[in-house]
Automatic annotation (TrEMBL):
Gene3D superfamilies: Nucleic acid-binding proteins. Keywords: Cytochrome c-type biogenesis, Heme, Iron, Membrane, Metal-binding. It comes from Eggerthella lenta (strain ATCC 25559 / DSM 2243 / CCUG 17323 / JCM 9979 / KCTC 3265 / NCTC 11813 / VPI 0255 / 1899 B). GO terms for biological process: cytochrome complex assembly; protein-heme linkage. Its main location: membrane. GO terms for molecular function: heme binding. Pfam families: CcmE. GO terms for cellular component: plasma membrane. It is found in: Membrane. This is Cytochrome c maturation protein CcmE.
Length: 221
């Protein structure tokens, strides 16, 4: 084996070792988190320990300041009055909203707040037939006649408009026939299956600002 071949083997071996170290660090970091309940985390017994807590987001408890999201979670299968404050810095999935299941990994600080380094949200998918739903054009064509009146509307999510709750309009609904658009307000959880271009059926009403205030968002099906 010549010197050139030896150098190549050393370099390749070094790269493999670095990759393995990174993988072990990531896996080890995740596995070291102890799974506890909302009630257990709220006691302060796990202060400064890496824990993983799952709970549902308390309605309208979330707020965003800069890139920092804060919200409260509760255990839907336990004492719903017991809540835990969570702080997360980073990008938030568009599924985030009221009552979404939030899996939070991090450490509880001296202030009793869970400073999450990881946040995963889950929301079950809902499906609804669009047979009795209006198109976006039909709905807007009624003007003030339908303001604050319950109605269903169907359309597709405009590319690039889907956001998490608390970041303004949740998304824009587009009429696939003529491209007419309708801004949608919605603060509850959205299924992770909802993406750019998804066909949706919304339940709610038009408001005085010309936007659709949705109470339910379902995939068409």
């Amino acid at each position: 084996m010549n010197a050139k071949t030896k150098r190549r083997m050393v370099v390749v071996t070094g790269i493999i070792v670095i990759v393995l170290v990174v993988i072990l660090a990531v896996v080890g970091g995740t596995s070291s988190a102890k799974t506890v309940s909302v009630a257990e985390a709220a006691t302060g017994s796990y202060a400064d320990q890496k824990i993983q807590v799952s709970g549902n987001v308390v309605e309208n408890s979330f707020a965003t300041e800069g890139n920092v999201l804060t919200f409260d979670i509760y255990d839907p299968n336990g004492d719903i009055t017991q809540q835990l404050r969570v702080r997360f810095e980073g990008g938030v999935s568009a599924t985030f909203g009221n009552d979404v299941t939030a899996i939070c990994t991090g450490k509880v600080g001296e202030d009793g707040v869970l400073n999450a380094s990881e946040l995963v949200t889950k929301c079950p998918s809902k499906y609804e037939n669009a047979t009795n739903a209006l198109t976006v054009s039909q709905l807007t064509g009624y003007g003030d006649e339908v303001v604050d009146k319950p109605v269903k509307v169907a359309g597709a999510v405009k590319d690039g408009t889907l956001k998490a709750a608390g970041e303004g309009d949740r998304f824009v609904l587009v009429d696939p026939e003529n491209g007419e658009e309708l801004a949608v307000e919605f603060n509850d959880a959205i299924s992770e299956e909802v993406k750019d271009g998804s066909s949706l059926v919304l339940t709610g009403s038009m408001n005085a600002q010309g936007k659709f205030s949705a109470t339910e968002v379902a995939l068409e099906g």
